[in-house]
Design brief:
2 copies of one chain form a homodimer. Chain A has about 290 residues and is of the alpha/beta class. Chain A has 10 helices and 11 strands. Chains A and B meet through helix 5, helix 7 and strand 6 of A and helix 5, helix 7 and strand 6 of B.
Chain lengths: ~290, ~290
């Protein structure tokens, strides 16, 4: 058996088209466009790349961006003031604080300062609290977890009643995706580095979300035939044959597992492109709420 | 095999002794005592009973209580003002809003108004958000879930590395207890009314927390021999042979399951007495933080 490919690149492109149409309509009807502020502290290469990709995606979608590229040694109060000013700016509908912040910054205070109505990353503790609870819908669902669910929905994969196994329990992916699957009536198991006999737990999955950050850890004999695999991993492994000297790989041994899975996301081109698509979706939803 | 009885009544009594000693010490050292405010709206019999039990327990422990027994038809703003006044009262270290509130009251607004520092029930969305996330300790852990963990700890049952199954996903028990077990490094499965083949999922448990509210639903052949059972259920079933015409029973068929489990809580006398003990513990911890 060879699995159906869950084509995140194509699905994200479809979502970008929908967003562009929404923005166009909003502009025609109100003369306004959605606005996303990016707050980047320091010069981490990966963070710079992410923010650049986000700005570029905004531009393509017709969303205004408001960039704040700030020095590594910014003081807590200065950073806080920038966030509060963005809260007050009516042209800004979403505020993205790129993580991680430098060590001297109190990250929770900054994230808590972002107005709930503009928390397009969904990391405000109140949004996480609402996400965890039944019937307390958060204003925004974190982008990568929302992207995982969207991939399942747009591939026509039913979640209700399925055994879902989430490998990894991070605040930004594992935990929220587990909560989303639970609210969609999956029976959810969360496993992690302290789980005993991990392969046998993973084998219980009808739907597996791997978000643990270990290259190709999940092997063919770890999965039940017919499993649906959402691979959030994004690991750089040495590859002298490649131009860059490395290649990107997921948490799942794709070539093996695709032979037994019923559907699987590739890495890259699976979950990755969904994160930015969901960020823009959250921003446009936020702007619509303000109309 | 006959299971070890996890004696919640005795464990709660031990905790009450510890609390009394703490209160005594605080009084001697500072001249102050911890204070708990109870806010009861309407005349629901069960809510009245719970609040009365809480007041009585405070009295026995030397904790001051501040009772607000309010009419069913109280307006949102009036109730909100009472909560804000209690937030400002330095003699009050914990505020308990007895749930459920009447239908015309916006429950989330009221619970969110309780000062984070006095949220001894742990139901403020920020406390729930912190509870769900790794390394973001909430100021207070909800009482019943905390009581479940305390029962395991004080019986010497190891949580790390175990398969824990939580039956039920309520905001007040199932979800928070699942998060607590996860943070203690159990591999956690959350199941519920939409779970397929529930018995086979429950059979995976080394530790089972039943919090689903269905009398004696978990049968002997649903559990793995040696399982540890924490039964949060509290169901009234008709019993003509009893004086009251009913008896209380848990979610687990105690008489059958105790023959295969390694340890089990009775109902009543298991989790029940722990809830109030943890409420007082949270109140005293809060008062200590204010010193």
């Amino acid at each position: 058996m060879t699995a159906q490919l869950i084509d995140g690149k194509q699905i994200a492109a479809d979502i970008h088209d929908e967003i562009r149409a929404d923005v166009e309509e909003m502009k025609t009807e109100t003369g306004k466009v959605p606005g996303l502020a990016t707050v980047l502290v320091g010069t981490r290469k990966d963070s710079q790349t992410y923010v650049k990709m986000k700005k570029r995606a905004c531009k393509k979608a017709g969303i205004a961006s408001f960039a704040h590229d700030l020095p590594e040694d910014i003081r807590q109060e200065e950073l806080l003031k920038i966030v509060l000013d963005l809260n007050a700016n009516p042209d800004v509908h979403g505020i993205l604080v790129q993580l991680p912040l430098p060590g001297h910054i109190d990250e929770e205070e900054i994230l808590s300062a972002v107005s709930l109505e503009k928390d397009v990353d969904g990391f405000h503790p109140i949004n996480i609290g609402r996400l965890s609870m039944k019937r307390r819908d958060p204003l925004f669902v974190p982008c990568t977890p929302r992207g995982c669910i969207e991939l399942l929905d747009r591939t026509g994969i039913k979640i209700e009643g399925k055994r879902a196994v989430v490998l990894g329990r991070s605040n930004i992916v594992g935990l929220p995706v587990a909560m989303l699957l639970l609210h969609r009536n999956a029976t959810v198991t969360i496993c992690h580095s302290r789980t005993k006999d991990l392969p046998s737990v993973v084998r219980e999955a009808d739907i597996l979300v791997a978000a643990v950050g270990r290259a190709e850890m999940v092997k063919r004999d770890w999965v039940k035939p017919g499993v649906v695999v959402i691979d959030v991993g994004m690991n750089a492994v040495d590859d002298p044959s490649s131009e860059k000297g490395y290649r990107l790989t997921g948490d799942v041994a794709f070539d093996e597992v695709k032979e037994v899975a019923s559907a699987i996301t590739p890495v890259p081109g699976g979950v990755g492109p969904m994160t930015i698509a969901m960020l823009l979706r959250n921003t446009v939803d936020s702007a619509k709420r303000c109309l």
